[in-house]
Amino acid sequence: MAVDLTTTLSWKSATGDASTMLDELQPNILKPHVRDHLSALFLRFTNVVEARVFLATLAKQQMKSAKQHLREVDAFKADATTGTPYVGVGLTASGYRFLGVRKAPADPSFQRGMRAPETRRTLTDPPRSTFDPGYRDELHAVVLVGDATDSAMTARRNEILALLPDSATVLTEEIGLGRINARGESIEHFGYVDGRSQPLFLGEDLDAEKNTTDGINVWNPGAPLGQVLVPDAAAPNPAAHFGSYFVFRKLEQNVRRFKQAESDLADTLGLRGTDRERAGAMIIGRFEDGTPLTTQREDGAESPVSNNFTYDSDENATKCPYQAHIRKTNPRGSGGVEELPQERQHLMARRGVPYGERADDPNADLPPSARPSGEVGLLFMAFNASLGNQFEFTQANWANNPAFPRVRTVPPAPPVVPGLDPVIGQGTRTPSDYVVDWGGKAKQTADPVPQAVTLKGGDYFFMPSLAFLRALA
Ligand code: HEM
Ligand SMILES: [Mn+2]
């Protein structure tokens, strides 16, 4: 039976093509793989035969399937048996051309690539000349190696480097390093819980969300397989062999500038005492501990933090501003432009991990001057079925678009222009409105939050099926 892409999949009872799909799919797509220690190796080949042998050997000797990953997660839950490292492989469009593969993935954004002038214009990206040196030349492939410990990750990384032929060059390597807060939840460098809200593709994960967290009756995170999987046209059997488009963006975070902006916004609004924490929450849409601002005036939500919310009871943004990062990037039905089913299709599977080390505790009460101003950030990674309708749409039509969400006003009331996403918006920033008291009426206009996230490199990849990789040599 054909893989049903229109709904979620219960992997334990999968049969036929769906079962084959899981045997031949790379891990970390349908469900996040632990990657608190990550190496991302960016490669350029010069010898077609050696490149093909290298990729096929990786698939045969170093890579596990999505199904094996899911089994390992169960074994870990049952008796703490540790799993094996994640090894993922992606190819750029120029990588496909170099390898001489016919029927390369057809997504037009993928074919153009992240470095094309048209893509740069769409995303308002900075020029490539400002990127880290390793990203200025054309890339062919990425190899991701991830695990829970540095030793396991590094050992596997070294095995893979030993397989690399001399005809291939590592143009650059990024090292991801997961961080956690006092409650053990993953955070990014500004100090906020990250990775909580995700589309869920597996029936088992949706059941767990329903039965063991705050539920799914208000916001249902379930998403159809077709939102992340695409048939691997170049594989032996595209009906059962699938892959996914992978976005990689190295986003440097100027933590000092961001923390200063939080403090300046609190001053502008006259926030005092613990209520000053609400300034940052109005930028992100959640407090540092993950508490959604639309549901609570202060932090302190349970762990795992809630995700079962929408903005339905916050139509006028008197709790969470329209421009808050999570409201811009997932309006949960309140975007005002599309119906919910269409609006939901823009969501992608985020798989990022922070990078860079620092001495200060991101959640400590310290002056901005004690914060790093560079060298730390987020290795933003996400899986998509359509780059144009997911990653690019989110960045361009939502985050960079000052008029999103579309807010209906009745004349003579002036039009509402929410402004750019204060975290990731690229483009000219204009002032935004913020409510002074949580749930109150009075709003105040504040200077734009300065841009504290800068793109330093990245590319679009396709992560093909294992069957495709094995067949390369
Ligand atoms: C350094 C850059 C970034 C930082 C610091 C950041 C931070 C965060 C935080 C703290 C959350 C809340 C945690 C959660 O709900 O899971 C979040 C959620 C999210 N972010 Fe980002 N993010 C960054 C880049 C991006 C980019 C580049 C995109 C897409 C273009 C993006 C899209 C999203 C989405 C879709 C959500 C989930 C919103 C929801 O479902 O409610 N983020 N981000
Ligand atoms: Mn704080």
UniProtKB/TrEMBL annotation:
Pfam family, any one: DyP_N
Key words, A-Z: Heme, Iron, Metal-binding, Oxidoreductase, Peroxidase, Signal
Needed co-factor(s): heme b
UniProt entry tagged with the keyword Lipid metabolism: no
Single annotated GO MF: peroxidase activity
Domain called Dyp-type peroxidase C-terminal: residue spans: 241-398
Highest taxon in the source lineage: Bacteria
Keyword Amino-acid biosynthesis among record annotations: no
InterPro entries given in the database record: Dimeric_a/b-barrel, DyP_N, Dyp_perox_C, Dyp_peroxidase
Region (Disordered): 291-316
Family annotation (PANTHER family): DEFERROCHELATASE (PTHR30521:SF4), DEFERROCHELATASE/PEROXIDASE (PTHR30521)
Family to which this protein belongs: Belongs to the DyP-type peroxidase family.
Protein name: Dyp-type peroxidase
The organism of origin for this protein: Amycolatopsis samaneae
Source species taxonomy: Bacteria, Bacillati, Actinomycetota, Actinomycetes, Pseudonocardiales
